[in-house]
Amino acid sequence: MENENYFTRSRSLLGEDRFVKLQNMRFCVIGLGGVGGSSFEALVRSGAKHIVGIDFDKVAPSNLNRQILFTRYDIGKYKADCAFARAKAINAEVDVETLKLKINEETLSFLDHYEFDYVIDAIDDLGAKVLLIKYLQKRNIPFISSLGMGNRIDCSNIEITKINKTHDDPLARKLRYLLKKEEVDLSQVDVIFSSSKVEQTDVNFVSSIMPSPSCAGLSAVAYIIKNL
After folding, report:
1. Sign (positive/negative) of CA torsion 191, 192, 194, 195?
2. Cβ of 156: how many Cβ atoms within 10 Å?
3. Considering Cα of 193, then 207, then 70, then 77, what sign does the dihedral take?
4. How is 157-195 classified by DSSP, letter by letter?
5. How many CA atoms lie within 13 A of 191 on its CB side?
6. Hey, which bits of the chain come out as E strands?
7. Confidence grade of residue 2 (pLDDT, cut at 50, 70, 90)
8. Which of 162, 170, 222, 164 is nearest to 196 (CA)?
């Protein structure tokens, strides 16, 4: 089959056993923007066969400076639909499903329909992030959560650790506080965060360019594969 050649270099780097394990795992990427989009595409290109992508939003012009899944032809379309099309354009045989779903108390139980081996949390909304982390931890589903990548130019200080060991990240500080209130064990929450300088701007929204969020998304997938 033609797509056997797609992953020749993945197989040679990972070894057959680890590559087969990657193919058999069921992944979920929640949030398909800067971080999640790069994670989603990295999973597809690395050889993962079973992926669910979740995002309720539509592509906006302001997304195109950093979100790898989309082009100007996608403006106004649902990110979930675009992610599905992109995955199939890369590998027609990938078992991919995308959902237009906003994570909240009413919708979270929808995830009970699946049996995920690993979840990448790339949600921007803190309330939804707390709900998701509680849900995953309660069910012993391995996951990694991305923290703040906005307003940063330098991507050399991105690292993966437990949330109780993060520093110099305003979003991490808020999330730690909220998780403590919910009695979540912080020592069991894997996160990817940046300790790079937060750039000051004169606008009232989060500014961003591609390097930091994409590096975070790619680092998440590298971490998962390394620890298969």
Report:
1. positive
2. 11
3. positive
4. TEEEEEGGG--S-HHHHHHHHHHHHTT--GGG-EEEEE-
5. 27
6. 26-30, 50-54, 95-99, 118-121, 143-146, 158-162, 190-194
7. low
8. 170
Report the chain's terminal Cα–Cα distance, integer Å: 26
Cβ–Cβ < 8 Å for 191, 145: yes
Phi, psi of 11 (to 5 degrees): -60, -40
DSSP 8-state code for residue 156:
T
Are 31 and 206 a contacting pair, CB within 8 Å?
no
pTM of model > 0.85: yes
Burial of 177 (0-12, 13-18, 19+ CB in 10 A): exposed
The whole-angstrom separation of Cα 48 and Cα 118 is: 12
**Region for residue 73 given its phi and psi (left: phi exceeds 0; alpha: psi -120 to 50; beta: otherwise):** alpha
Across 201-218, average pLDDT = 94
Tokens describing residue 85 = 């099309």
Q: What pLDDT score does 208 carry?
A: 94
Residues 225/46, Cβ–Cβ less than 8 Å: yes
E strands, 39-195, in order: 50-54, 95-99, 118-121, 143-146, 158-162, 190-194
Residue 169 is predicted with a pLDDT of: 85
